[in-house]
């Protein structure tokens, strides 16, 4: 049942791309994994980085929310600063997720998260403190991480 | 009842996000809308004196599942009659107001539209929701569009195919255990699922599960209700004790299943010690801090390699096993510098040495004090476990006794009472030691310790009799002794609890040097 919905959503995102996003399917063409490249707006600290995000749609999508992971390292209060790249996003939590929520809204929420980090709901406590109390130091480190990890095309893991 | 009392769990955060400002005062209202409102809720010292109820007892009421359902039904009927809304909507409203009927009625009279919206009941159409096929319909969840697809929408009008709706509800109820806060599947719609819609959509098993979960939210939503924590016990207990009174009263309640627990904290019965003290004590016992205390009291560090050394006998001439450094245990100086004064350190009186000794003595005394109380506490805990094992054998014993002595089932019940008395008294004794640890010494503590001693002796006596083999138990004289001792133990326990509870409660007056005052003193240090 979910394949029809996913195909439709993928078609929509491909035909009318959301600003700053490039969405592709992995080489094996599984519709349950989306490879997303996000380029944040020029006004943000993370510009001109390009961030790889893997969106995994569970088998009972859209009744369960998609699982989102950053494959590019990001220095951000709400994204784990490790190879897992877990994200904390309110609309992805089981109690907030509604089956009628579209992936497009998830992607928009992700972009907003890069534009405006949420230090009060952090995954990386230390980075959140720095973001709140020493914004300059945080920006410098975030920029350095962009230069180090995010200038090339993101490399997606083979699934 | 005072309106600004703080209820036990301040669970404002459990309120739905969309409740808005009009809900913020929901806690301020009394919850006296029960069939038999009990004026004793929220016992204070004054009430106790007036009513002459036992000082160590709080009033509480046990509710079985059928009572809980009936209470909900009664309230729904009331709201249904007064506001002329259907029962499903009344239920949703009551849940939104955490079953505070007065608050609901008042708010609804003021601003009906706003209240309905906050509760997730805002409606565009008034027709009853039903399953229907709509030409040209495309389900927004699964994107199916075949002809004759059955669809469903609640009053909010967000329409989805029946399969998706069912799947959604099944997942919410079965996997996530949701009930009272299941919203419409539409993104951003706060419409709450009502049970009539549920009945239209899902199997009876799932409906049963849903109602079971709803029952649970009823108890969990009410601050004066708690589930009995005993395994598999379906009962709930209502007790009106206030959080701010927990330093004056220890609200032990007993479920119909026999389980005794504290209404003020998550622990089993811990009379006579107040909740706060219990928390400190458990933390202290669990902490490594006491291990560290022990180390500092019993060991020193090698002055050269800093290995921790415990001196377990022998003379003051120490040789570190690790680095072979030789030093004096008394002054920690190099042994070779001691010259001729073997076995008698003449630097003992040095100032630095004296300070180190003082610190060490202090640490040792406080440790010994702690260990004194802890050992007795742990001993009763252990004995209670053993008594419990024995209690499990009691039933067998009782059967055996019936066959050997020809006594009837009723006649051997005294063993059961004895076993229960033992366990209850041990539980109390255990906590008297934690309590005593935090007490400052004065003449009231002496009375307390006398009470403690009396109870302890009685319990040990009873425990001894109780363990006797069957042959001796059939002796009628022993039976009488056990029955006497059992009632004596129970009496001593009540005396101890009464005395302590009275002193705890008196602490509010602030005049007498009560146990409570001294307790505060020691605890604030």
TrEMBL record, chain A:
Assigned EC number: 2.3.2.23
Domain UBC core: 1-151
Top EC class of this enzyme: transferase
InterPro entries per the UniProt record, alphabetical: Ub_conjugating_enzyme (IPR050113), UBC (IPR000608), UBQ-conjugating_enzyme/RWD (IPR016135)
GO terms of molecular function: ATP binding; ubiquitin conjugating enzyme activity
PANTHER family (alphabetical): UBIQUITIN-CONJUGATING ENZYME E2 (PTHR24067)
Keyword tags: ATP-binding, Nucleotide-binding, Transferase, Ubl conjugation pathway
PROSITE patterns to which the protein is assigned, alphabetical: UBC_2
Annotated TM spans: none
Keyword Kinase carried by entry: no
Pfam family, one: UQ_con
Full protein name: E2 ubiquitin-conjugating enzyme
Record SMART domains: UBCc (SM00212)
Keyword Coiled coil attached: no
UniProtKB/TrEMBL annotation, chain B:
Region (Disordered): 1-46
Biased composition (Acidic residues): 14-39
Domain RING-type: from-to ranges: 135-349, 139-185
Entry's Gene Ontology BP terms: protein ubiquitination
Enzyme Commission number(s) from the entry: 2.3.2.31
GO molecular function, one term: zinc ion binding
Catalytic activity: [E2 ubiquitin-conjugating enzyme]-S-ubiquitinyl-L-cysteine + [acceptor protein]-L-lysine = [E2 ubiquitin-conjugating enzyme]-L-cysteine + [acceptor protein]-N(6)-ubiquitinyl-L-lysine
Domain of life of the source: Eukaryota
InterPro entries on file: Ariadne, ARIH1-like_UBL, E3_UB_ligase_RBR, IBR_dom, TRIAD_supradom, Znf_C3HC4_RING-type, Znf_RING, Znf_RING/FYVE/PHD
Signal peptide as annotated in the record: none
Protein name according to UniProt: RBR-type E3 ubiquitin transferase
Originating organism: Trichoderma harzianum CBS 226.95
């Amino acid at each position: 049942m979910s394949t029809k919905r996913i195909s439709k959503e993928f078609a929509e995102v491909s035909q009318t791309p959301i600003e700053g996003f490039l969405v592709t399917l992995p080489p094996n063409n599984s519709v349950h994994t989306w490879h997303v490249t996000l380029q944040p707006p020029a006004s943000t600290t993370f510009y001109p980085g390009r961030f790889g995000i893997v969106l995994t749609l569970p088998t009972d999508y859209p009744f369960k929310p998609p699982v989102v992971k950053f494959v590019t390292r990001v220095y951000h209060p709400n994204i784990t600063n490790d190879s897992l790249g877990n994200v904390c996003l309110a609309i992805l939590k089981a109690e907030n997720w509604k089956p009628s929520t579209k992936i497009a809204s998830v992607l928009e929420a992700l972009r907003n998260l890069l534009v405006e980090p949420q230090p009060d709901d952090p995954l990386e406590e230390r980075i959140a403190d720095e973001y709140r109390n020493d914004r300059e130091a945080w920006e410098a480190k975030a920029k350095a991480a962009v230069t180090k990890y995010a200038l090339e095309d993101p490399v997606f893991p083979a699934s | 009842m005072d309106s600004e009392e703080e209820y036990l769990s301040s669970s404002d955060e459990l309120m739905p996000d969309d409740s808005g400002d009009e809900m913020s005062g929901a806690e301020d209202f009394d919850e006296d809308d029960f069939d038999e409102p009990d004026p004793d809720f929220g016992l204070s010292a004054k009430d106790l004196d007036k009513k002459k109820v036992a000082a160590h007892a709080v009033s509480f009421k046990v509710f079985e599942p059928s009572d809980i359902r009936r209470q909900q039904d009664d309230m729904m009927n009331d709201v249904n009659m007064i506001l002329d809304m259907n029962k499903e909507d009344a239920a949703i409203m009551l849940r939104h107001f955490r079953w505070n009927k007065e608050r609901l009625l008042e708010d609804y009279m003021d601003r009906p539209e706003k209240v309905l919206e906050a509760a997730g009941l805002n409606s565009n159409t008034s027709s009853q929701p039903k399953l229907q096929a709509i030409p040209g319909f495309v389900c927004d969840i699964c994107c199916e569009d075949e002809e004759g697809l059955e669809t469903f929408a609640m009053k909010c009008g967000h329409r989805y195919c029946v399969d998706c709706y069912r799947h959604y509800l099944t997942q919410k109820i079965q996997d996530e255990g949701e009930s009272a806060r299941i919203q419409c599947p539409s993104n951003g719609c706060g419409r709450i699922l009502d049970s009539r819609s549920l009945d239209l959509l899902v199997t009876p098993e799932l409906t049963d599960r849903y109602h079971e979960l709803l029952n649970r939210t009823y108890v969990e939503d009410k601050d004066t209700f708690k589930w009995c924590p005993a395994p598999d016990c379906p009962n709930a207990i209502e007790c009106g004790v206030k959080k701010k009174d927990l330093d004056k009263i220890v609200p032990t309640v007993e479920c119909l299943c026999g389980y005794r627990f504290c209404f003020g904290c998550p622990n089993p019965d811990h009379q006579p010690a107040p909740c706060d003290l219990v928390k400190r004590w458990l933390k202290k016992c669990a902490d490594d801090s006491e291990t560290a205390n022990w180390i500092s009291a019993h060991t020193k560090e090698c002055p050269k390699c800093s290995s921790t050394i415990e001196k377990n006998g022998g003379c003051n001439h120490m040789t570190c096993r690790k680095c072979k450094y030789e030093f004096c245990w008394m002054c920690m100086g190099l042994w070779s510098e001691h010259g001729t004064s073997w076995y008698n350190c003449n630097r003992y009186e040095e100032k630095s040495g004296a300070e180190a000794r003082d610190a060490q003595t202090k640490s040792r005394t406080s440790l010994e004090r702690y260990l004194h109380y802890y050992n007795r506490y742990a001993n009763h805990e252990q004995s209670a476990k053993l008594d419990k094992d024995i209690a499990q054998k009691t039933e067998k014993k009782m059967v055996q006794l019936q066959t050997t002595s020809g006594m009837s089932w009723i006649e051997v019940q005294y063993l059961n009472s004895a076993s229960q008395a033992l366990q209850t008294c041990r539980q109390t004794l255990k906590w008297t030691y934690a309590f005593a640890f935090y007490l400052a010494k004065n003449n009231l503590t002496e009375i307390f310790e006398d009470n403690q001693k009396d109870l302890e002796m009685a319990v040990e006596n009873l425990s001894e009799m109780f363990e006797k083999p069957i042959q001796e138990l059939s002796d009628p004289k022993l039976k009488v002794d056990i029955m006497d001792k059992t009632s004596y133990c129970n009496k001593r326990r009540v005396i101890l609890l009464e005395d302590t509870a009275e002193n705890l409660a008196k602490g509010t007056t602030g005049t007498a040097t009560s146990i409570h005052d001294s307790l505060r003193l020691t605890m604030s240090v």
